Amino acid sequence: MKMKYGFIIAIASVLFISHLAGAFPGSNEKPVTPYGDSCKRCSEYGNCKSTMSHEDAQKALIEYYHDKGLGVELEKKRGRFIRAKVTDNKKVVDVIIFDRRSGRIRSIY
Q1: Which structural domain, as residue segments, surrounds residue 20?
Q2: DSSP string, 52-103
C-alpha cells in the first residue's frame, strides 16, 4: 500500500514540475541562432563558392546578426572556423562557431 501511494506521489510530482517548466521566462523564446543555420552569402545547404576570408566572414556574421538587432564580437580565428560572442546591448546572448567553408553558424552556448 505504501508503494502505491509513493508511486502516485512521484507521478504527481513529475507532472507538477513539468507543468512549471513552461512558466519560467525564456522557455518559449526562439533560439538566437537556430540549429545549423547558415549565412546569406552561402546556400542553405552549406555550399560556398570558395572559403571566405576572415574579413568576409566577419562581415557575413555582422550582417546576419544585424538583421536580428544583435551585435557580434569575434573571439578567435583558427583555421576555417571563427568563434564569436553574440551580444544584445553588451550582454552575451549566444556564443557561436562559424565555418568559413560552408557558411554554417552553430551555437555552442
Answers
A1: 2-107
A2: PPHHHHHHHHHHHHHTTT-EEEEEEEETTEEEEEEEETTEEEEEEEEETTT-
> What pTM value is reported for the model?
0.66
Cα 85 from chain centre: 11
Look at residue 11 in the predicted model and tell me its pLDDT.
74
> What per-residue confidence (pLDDT) applies to 9?
75
| In the block, residue with C-alpha cell 546578426 | 65
The one-letter amino acid code at 39 reads C
Q: How many domains does the chain have?
A: 1
Whether 34 and 44 have beta carbons less than 8 Å apart is answered as no
89 vs 14: CA distance, rounded Å: 37
